[in-house]
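User: Hand in any protein.

Assistant:
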Amino acid sequence: MLARRAPRPHPVAGFYGPDSMMWRINREAVLLGSGPAALLLQIAHPHVAEGVAQHSDFAAAPFRRLEATVHTTMGLVFGDGPRAERAVRRLNGIHAAVRGEAADPLAREVVGTSYRALNPDLLLWVQATLIMTSVRAYERWVARLTPEERERFWAEARSVGMRIGIPLSRSPADWTAFERYWDRMLAVDGPIQVTPTARHLAPMIVRPPIPLVPGALLDLAALPGLALLPERIRAGFGLPWGSRREALAGVAAVGLRTWVGLMPRSWRAMPQARAAERRVRRETQGAARTAVAHRKSQRLGR
């Protein structure tokens, strides 16, 4: 059987396009609230935590890192062909420089001594955290997804994952296999274990230092996203929870879903999504005008 080739982006629509699940889900600005959960799950892998701690200025400049991450992710999802390719090169270039020896004793015990960011298993885990938290947040805060829509979402992510170092042979073949992979990674005896290094990084994710915003307000705003985490992971990070916080997170989720239902579709979209939709619409309209002009010229030439 011939090996499947890694995808190349369309010059205008990029890797995905307006009919994709990737655009449908990631256009919702409210999903930014799932970001902290995804980041915490990522650093719950001991080697990811080691890479961030040893090769990143995350602790010193969390907002600069967050801005760069969002910029690259939005370029990969909503960028046209050239921008999507730049996002791929940027990701692969950054990851190529991240390798080393784990300093945390628990990390060395659980997943081994050496790490490198281009390890397909690490890349797959990072991708998986983004996919699973996006799906769970979308279903809680926006709308339910059918099994077929979840399958499409994962298939789209899996395909483009080839461009960032995740071979199809290492990637779960469908959503059911993806869920089995997720459960296996998060099992009590699995590789996802919160290390002291990860706990040191967590406060910058859970309660970033935003000027003039009270910490209590940040804690409240974080609840819906933290509710997406498995209880074992919240406990590993020492995040206080319980029935009261669970109830507050539920009320906040209802509020978010109500807000989404009341807002016009364009008002609640990420600006990169709106720009991509306009770009594709212009291209479609231009192609339609060209086709009409061509037909007219053919009729006149008869």
